[in-house]
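Dear colleague,

Following up on Tuesday's group meeting, I ran the structure prediction for the two-component complex that the binding team flagged. I've pasted the input sequences exactly as they went in, so you can double-check that nothing got truncated or mislabelled along the way. The structure tokens for the whole assembly follow below. Feel free to forward this to whoever is handling the docking comparison.

Inputs:
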Amino acid sequence: MRLIRYTTPVARAYHPAFARSPWAGLEEQMDRLFEAALGETAGPAAAGFPVDLYEDAAATYVRAELPGVNRADINVELADGTLQISAKRTRKTGEREETVEFNRALTVPEGAVAADKISAAFENGVLTVTLPKREEAKPRKISVAVS
Amino acid sequence: MSLLSTLIPSLAPAPAAPAPAPRTDSEPTRTPRHEVTDTPEAYGLVVELPGVAKDGLELSVDHEQIRVFGRRSWRKPEAWQALHRESRDIAYELVLEHGRTIDAEKIHAELRDGVLRVSLPKAEALKPRKIAVA
């Protein structure tokens, strides 16, 4: 026989860990859906920014829109297979000064990127990070002479 | 979309401004993120135009509208293949009505790092004036 201790609902409600509504999971899902659907019209969230990914035979390219950010306030880091782009934008309006921080992390396939050859350029408010592919990861073309 | 007039209804001219003329070209555009500020001397307009260079930008002010049109200067190289896109290549367009309250001769604009800042000085007649009482 098992004894199940009775816990009063009141005690539960006081404890933040148990105050979670049974629908919390669903609510989170819904929020995420709405965010995905409305992302374009509502504008990117305060902490995010739009990112495009491109690829060619030699490299993978990440283009991030960071309008109004100073070149010096952009930080690009690759660690443990994660490319972290963080930036800070300070805007002065009269005496008021506000700083917005942007952050975005992308997973980079381990071993596919020549980590020592990564470069980045910033032009017209768009950051382009070039992640060259490692020699082993590049598709190889072998021409065979037909006689 | 008369944002400037909406912000300061008292400054809007009495007769309603006619609706903006329909654009002749049917190129799709999107409205960029923007901000309008108001000081006693001037209106400030800040428009986010990532990817737009100086030669791709058109700023025109006529007697009732301010029109910002920006085209991205960057083109995807042929060999590049898009894996994931969050931005759009279409041009930016923003039309604001200014309610004939600005001095078109003194407009100053600057484009830096994908942000356009326009200073639109108010017409002399609208500036707050201090009148000395004798």
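The radius of gyration of chain A is 24 Å.

Cheers,
M.
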